[in-house]
Amino acid sequence: MLGGLLFGLTAGILCADLFPRVAFTGLALAAGICMFRRAPRLLIVFACFFCLGFALTVLRFNMLPKPVYGEEITVTVASRRLTKQGDGYCAWQGTIIEPRQLAGATVQVYADTYRPGTYTLSGPLLPPVEYRNPGQGWHYKRKICANEIGILRWPRVIHFAGHVPGVLSRVRASFRDNVQANLGDRDSAALALAIVLGDRSLLPESLGSALYRTGVGHIMALSGLHVSILAGIIMTLLRIAGLPRPWAVALCAVLLILFVIFAGPSPSLLRAVLMYFYGAIAVFAGRERQGLTALLWTAAAMLLFNPLWLFDYAFVYSFWATFICLTLGDRLEKHLGFLPEKVAKIASLSVLIQLTALPLNVYLFGQVALWSPLANIVIIPLLPVLAGLAMLAGLPGPVGAATALPGKLLFKGTAEFFLLLNQFPLVLEVGGLHMLLLAGLSVSVLVWLRTGNRRYLVLCMAGLLAVYSLLCAVDSQVCRAWFLDVGQGDAILIRQQGKWILVDCGDARAGESAVVPTLKFLGVRQIDALIISHPHADHCGGLEALAAAIRVDKVFVNSCFVDSPWHELFPRAEVVRTPRVAGPGITVLPPVAGTAGLNDNSLLVSVRRNGIGILCTGDIEEVGELLHLSHLTPHSILKVPHHGSDSSTSARLLAQTQPRAAVVSCGPANKFGFPKPAVLERLEAHGIDIYRTDTAGCVQAIIWPWSEFTIHTFAGR
Fold first, then answer.
1. Are 366 and 336 members of one domain?
2. pLDDT for 234-285, tens place per residue?
3. Which residue has the higher pLDDT, 86 or 335?
4. If we measure between CA atoms, which residue out of 356, 410, 353 comes closest to residue 383?
5. pTM for the full model?
6. What contacts 173, CB < 8 A, 6 or more positions away?
7. Does 292 lie in the same domain as 143?
8. Are 630 and 656 in contact (CB under 8 A)?
9. Range of the domain at 89
10. How far is it, in rounded angstroms, from Cα 302 to Cα 611?
């Protein structure tokens, strides 16, 4: 019955997010089931909580603020939390007080210095993730559902009023200062604070990357492992002191509440503490070993309180990993019976954590850390010692100082161990449909461990291969074009009959942080044709990052590219002087004789499939448009020239190409003011649907076999 409750609640939440229109049909069906008295009780419970989950989620979504990115905004925020301290900058989080329509939301602020207090800031509001492309969906959703509306980068400070820190703030600051003073070394102090408080503000980028790339990043997210360690330490000390077990359990619960207040609540930490409370009640009631029941009740209670926690991957991972460990831990230990008992327990826990985290890690980071089993076998037994030393290092006086020597040695050694592993990365990069295969393999092994029947493993694998084959067949019959969010620049990825074609690749920063990660997420191993429209930094600045990460077969450029600094990256690039075929249904059009300037010399790219056309126009301006008119044909989708500059997208171009949809690739709050209002008005006057990467993120166009196309945006996926 409890499982039906939780399953119905989760299904309602997901349907409200993924299928809001279709879900109304499910809602009506669920309501009908509830009214049908002869329906099985489990089905009625499912239907009731499906309706409840749907209603609560819709209500929560409607309460979230809906800011417009790229516009100048003036906000008053209160801040007491530093999130990152780097070389020459500080990142801190503030809660909005004014304007009222955004009150309660949080913003991430980047500035030169930081002091706790109340700020009045003015500047353009940027999205909460820098580039909104495939692979960033869950990161973006997590921030939005946590009421984090965006980023302010070096805003103007109109007014500042400091505040006197409260008792809790002073205690936290004192603890942090004591850890740094007692452990001395920056890496050691940063690792200690990350383990015991989840505070990563001091963590150097190199060490943070090493922890994630070796598969032990979970030690920095306060969860059940941390609570069990803390509870174990407290219970041991209280029992040594002679306190009866029930009283020790009760006092431990009080101390855990204080720890949550001190560290700051997070979904995974709250889950672990609530489970402890359920276990404490079970102890007093004489009904112990209620772990699975405690987990299910805790999940239901937390989702009823805030259904949007389901979109927090720390919450999902915490529950999923705990569920797997509770249900399969003993079963896996039996298969490791050839190992000593303690080693078998640690090894089984490590393997289960890896199997559980595999689908999530592949989706979020696009890779599998092959060092992970070894790294976890090392760190999990050490974690109680590290946590205990970190807590003692935060104490003042001789007690904290007494931990200096062992703490320095152990934390420094642990940090060096992970940095060493990271120097020899064993990382398996996975993208595209291969992510489905790897995730399915993980689930299949878990099903086999749960049932003990190899037949289920075979059935799962057969079903997985069937789904994979079907998706591959569908992929070969459609054409997809991703107009990537690269800020102020262009990058268009095209998938046509099994070939990958990339038109431009953004600037240097976007190439490294947006284009390459997106290509890897989508499973691009080789670019069959790279087309550089013209050698401006916002179109080809990302070439160095692309060349270092992805194999490129053919490169097509205009004559101006030969004299650019990027030519040495692809010295054999083909200069397009006559129309060239770059792939199935993909034609590269050269500049027309007589054009002058880099923009008007842009290469044009025409994509055709099933009677639908996509025209990519680089940065041509009105002169270039007029010279191309004689040989341009109608295209259903137009990439608006020159990012929406008012020197382009003439009425004659629109009349000649007859687009039904137009995509503007530009950056939020760009200094040029693109797209210009005159261009948007012209597009609207022609009845053309407008999609913008600055407001909606990545825009994806899909051409179907039945000669129709659909367009999806990152923000409205």
1. yes
2. 888 887 888 887 788 888 888 888 888 888 888 888 888 888 777 777 666 6
3. 86
4. 410
5. 0.89
6. 165
7. no
8. no
9. 72-164
10. 51
